[in-house]
Known about the structure:
- The chain is an alpha/beta fold.
- The protein has two domains: 4-80 and 377-414, Urease, subunit C, domain 1, CATH 2.30.40; 82-369, Alpha-Beta Barrel (TIM Barrel), CATH 3.20.20.140.
- 34% of the residues lie in helices and 21% in strands.
- It has twelve helices and 19 strands.
- The strands form five sheets. Strands 1, 2, 3, 4, 5, 17, 18 and 19 form an eight-stranded mixed β-sheet that branches. Strands 11-12-13-14 form a four-stranded parallel β-sheet.
- The radius of gyration is 22 Å and the shape is globular.
- It starts with a helix and ends in a 6-residue tail after the last strand.
- The model is unreliable at 1-21 (pLDDT under 50).
Amino acid sequence: MMTGIGRLGLAIGLLMATSANAELVALTGATVVDIDGKAPVKNAVVLIDGEKIQAIGPAGATPVPAGAKIIPLDGKWLIPGLMNMHVHLALNLPGASRVYNEGRDSIALRMLDNAQKSLRSGVTTIRLTGAQDGADFTVKKMIDSGVFDGPRIHTAGSSIVATGGHGSTEVNGAAEFAHAVREQIKRGATWIKLGISGGISDTHGEIAASPFTDDELKTAIEVAHRNGVKVTGHNGSPLSADTAIDAGIDGFEHGYFLTPPVLTRMKQKGVWLVPTIVVSQAGAKEFYRKIGSPDWYLARVDSVGKAHWQTLQNAIRIGTPIALGSDQYPWEPNEGTTATIREAELYVDAGMTPLQSLRSATIDSARMLGVDNQVGALRPGYFADIVAVDADPRADIRALRTISFVMKGGKAIVMPAVGS
Length: 420
């Protein structure tokens, strides 16, 4: 049996066995929040070797190796980097500021700018749920290669829909759907998004309409799953939901008009809901005014707001799996904070505990993506995606409004102001 001295020696040896080419960083003085609800680690030392967390422990039991770069975060609370699961980095809604005839180069530059702003706001992982002209794959490659800073990107490529529906790539019939799914996967999509009901920004049709045939929907999901890729559906239709659940879909976006029976089936089958509640509530009006949204668009927003809120409350009560997504840019201002953080606050208003809401923005989103062994929690071996706030967000989710430090993969992106 190893003695206490032996264990201490082994721990020190592990701390010193760092990569020769990686900088060792120590975050000191903060309290580390345990995302599973266990007691936090006070006055902690977080040791980071290159991109990953090497050790976490109280200062008295976690020595800082000589030569490590020390980042003091006294009095702060450390949580995992936030995750936003419904993002359009080149969002282009109806309005006075809508960009028409935009080329792929302009799209890519807008996406990169919004990706960098998202990261600086504390969002270290995003899932793109519909992009234009393949620019998302280029932006992801540039960020992954380290050429530019930005969040980790999971992308669905171009959203696929039956002609006239809510989406970008319009096809018809099971064979065309199969081809469209394969094409997005070939280009690098790690999710497939299907527009299986109408949308708020559509100029025609009902939001709860269901344009797919059963054969089209089942074929698209089968082809994606055979290629090891998950499928989500833009959906507000209970009818579409039942068919999609039967076909094995992995998640729904928005869920405007989903009923308790549908939400219960989702819980039973492990189908995720990404609510994007901010887009139909009062806080988004500031954004819609800024982009000059037309009256017809605002009327459609208002028409779904109450039903959307009821769906969220029912989903929380039932226990439907929920991962946070905003639909607005992750950094976009919304009621005095960002859209990502406001989304988390609204979950609490609708019935979640602050910890449940925090989990929806971290480890639960990671679970949905299938990367919960890499990100979404502060644990040894995980990527050092870390943000610091001024108070315990498990007590008050509004603590997320005080983000002052952002790190992604061991690289400090935002540092606290001197004396803060």
